[in-house]
Specification:
The protein is an alpha+beta fold and about 160 residues long. Helices cover about 35% and strands about 20% of the residues. The strands form two sheets. Strands 1-2-6-5 form a four-stranded antiparallel β-sheet, with helices on both faces. A two-stranded antiparallel ribbon has the order 3-4. A hairpin with an 8-residue loop joins β3 and β4. The longest helix has 18 residues. The radius of gyration is 18 Å and the shape is globular.
């Protein structure tokens, strides 16, 4: 819960906190419904995770003084900020957190009973880093620090430059 508490402090438009987390711990009845959403490649390495978490965001917000909810342009960005806080807190506590896009998005709405007005964003595996020798060979090769783009490719002054 400490990891989720950290996520709850992420900034959001109108302080709407549009993120919702659905989690399951390994070896619990809830685990299968989340694990079965993953594509086979993600299942092959996330099966030993301590928990799986589905991040969902509300697509509307209730601004102060508004008569009702309005569409939220930034709900995914806000949920991403919560994911970032979650990942940082997990790392601080000695865990690893890895977000995945490889899952059955449409199936997640049904399996998790996600109502209209919410967007399923990602599935996150949380666990201790294990020995890469237990992974299938193609995944073993990927278990190394990844390279980052130079900041000069990411930051532009004045206008977008390709």
């Amino acid at each position: 819960m400490t990891i989720f508490e950290a996520a709850s402090w992420a900034p959001s438009s109108f302080n709407s906190q549009p993120w919702r987390f659905i989690y399951a711990r390994r070896n619990t009845p809830e685990w299968t419904s989340l694990f079965d959403l993953l594509v086979p490649m993600n299942q092959s390495w996330a099966g030993r995770a301590a928990a799986l978490v589905v991040l969902i965001s509300a697509t509307t917000a209730q601004p102060p003084g508004a008569p009702g909810p309005i569409p939220s342009y930034s709900h995914s960005l806000d949920a991403g900020a919560a994911w970032g806080y979650l990942a940082l807190q997990a790392t601080r506590l000695g865990w690893q957190a890895h977000a995945m896009a490889g899952f059955n998005v449409e199936g997640a709405y049904q399996a998790l009973n996600v109502p209209e007005g919410y967007r399923v964003e990602t599935v996150i595996a949380i666990g201790r880093q294990g020995d890469k020798s237990v992974l299938p060979p193609p995944l073993q090769e990927r278990e190394q620090p990844n390279v980052r783009r130079p900041v000069s490719e990411l930051v532009m002054e004045g206008q977008f430059k390709s």
